[in-house]
């Protein structure tokens, strides 16, 4: 059973961490790529895409975690055996030696050659086939220096293909190409996946190209995996805002039904914490939430607040921090619209914080509504001042507070403890796929 | 980057290679005649072309051709024996040694330039020249062994060179040995040894001539035994280095690309460094430090025969042989009545040639740094 499973997983990374001179480049990244899948690796510059690809090639020193190629741990494979399993198109290949294209493609057959390096008929046949696949069939005798930029990139792809490895890693293969050549190259890669069951992991900057060609998009940010799933589940304006810091509009191509993003403007620099953890919802009122909101904002969390009365000092803090919030008119009981909005914010949150606000008949709903969302979300109650001292609802607040604790909510004292506990609680669950995209392998049969 | 042009076709490559080998043999053979005829050699004897040729053929055919090698010339019977000795035991070994050493330096230079992807690397990268000098100095100055054998200086130079090479390798040892680290370690250790050398010479000024000759590559005087040892070195070490052609080809794409294609880049680098440095130390031990041959030969080959290292490595050996034997002839021709160290001449002739090459190639990229 293990063998069968191993054969279907082309690349597996378990808790892979890499640090360069003490600076973390990858942190606990898990990735499992089934055979025959085309995975796009996305993320801003410096997010760890190249490092993850290099890790899978065994080119990274001091890697922690486990990398397996077709079920075999990378460490146990010789360099030649690795080359027979995985081939690489690097971001830049110094292709400036004056060699004929077919000779250059033969370089890729190194791992197949015998001890004295004579190429056999099989090698020559492979080169002929690849020349066809990269659309340079009649150019084999020409020097690689005579190729245009787009042809050159195809030649590099061909050199990697010549290795005959079932797994192909591409690092920004389209970054220097014009639009036509970008599509051409990715079409060729796509058809390789389809026709020859090659597995491809490609770092791609262009999310629209990724959405168009990939079965699955994995998003890295500051060395963490922050999203993983089919393009339509992963790509969202919210993701673009929190990872790329770009305000974008998501549209759908009427012809193909594929999502595409139209960037509108740059937002504030995204926070790594917010991008990793997603929004935290704080329930407040009467100024009780303000110091917790500021502490969490300083720690980089993405926040929502609710439900607040206008002119309340928590509402002013929320406005100062530009936080999404649910509001009600001053002194009125929380109405239907405000509570509905509050429940939406609670539903989108990864964690809930109940600040120590005074509870009366007008805002009792601020304890009733969150209670329904505690299941599955780390929830924190602030211990001081004790609930009995701020229960102005005739004991109803105290009993609701007790029900929170029964549902698994935990008590904290003060903002520092809250930030620490929240980071721990979310950090522990961050390795699970984001709720928006829970099905990394689901797109396999697309 | 030059516009692409079709690389030399296979047939033309073979023809060019054959031409190179032929030229080398011809120049080598011609050198013997040239050096002896017309009073070009700083010897008191002049041997006519005809006699030289007949002596050579007589010896090469193991006495079957020209049973009387000096027949038809003005030689007295008693002269013929000494002429034969001059041709066969002095001049021919000298020419052959030049070819062997040139080949060794060419091969060593080509492989080292290949692993570092740097056209400025030469065979003395690891401080072998300074180490060898110190070895010779110690033997010459202190006369450690009483019996002065002709293999003693070479042995000392070899030991000094190899020891220095290993010391530099150890000093530069790291996770990824870059050419900069190695060059700096080589320079640093060379300075250290130069200091020691100066100290030795300062206290023993009289006995410095032999050492100076070694430093200038002036010991190009062959004997059959030294030729044999040098030839064996070039055959074995050069042959081994010739097996790295495919690895060197892939390394030109970058060490990591090479590794992703199945080349153990670190192991290849260390092996080539060791083999090439042993080869360099081995051949220059017999002649002293001869510059530029190892630097320039691979350039000429790449220009003429393309960049396939499976061809570049052996062809650099052929070009190195041709280059050094020609430089030796030219040195003798230009200064017929004094012994000009051939190392000086390779620099005098090699530098302008190299500059022309650079000028004509300045737009061409030889690949990035290490």
Task: Give a description of the structure.
- The complex is a heterodimer of chains A (446) and B (370).
- Chain A is an alpha/beta fold and 446 residues long.
- Chain A has helices at residues 2-8, 49-56, 79-85, 101-107, 121-133, 149-161, 179-196, 207-213, 231-234, 237-244, 272-277, 290-298, 313-320, 336-348, 365-371, 396-406, 414-429, and strands at 9-20, 23-34, 38-42, 64-69, 72-73, 86-89, 167-171, 199-203, 216-221, 224-229, 246-252, 259-266, 279-283, 302-309, 325-328, 351-354, 379-382, 410-412.
- In chain A, strand 7, helix 7 (179-196) and strand 8 (199-203) form a beta-alpha-beta unit.
- In chain A, helix 4 (101-107) packs parallel to helix 6, helix 12 packs across helix 17 (414-429) and helix 14 packs parallel to helix 15.
- The longest helix of chain A is centred in the middle third of the chain and has 18 residues, at 179-196.
- Chain A is elongated.
- Chain B is mainly α and 370 residues long.
- The longest helix of chain B is centred in the N-terminal third of the chain and has 40 residues, at 77-116.
- Chain B has helices at residues 10-36, 49-60, 77-116, 128-142, 152-171, 179-203, 209-215, 224-242, 245-251, 255-260, 265-287, 293-305, 309-334, 342-361.
- The two termini of chain B are 19 Å apart.
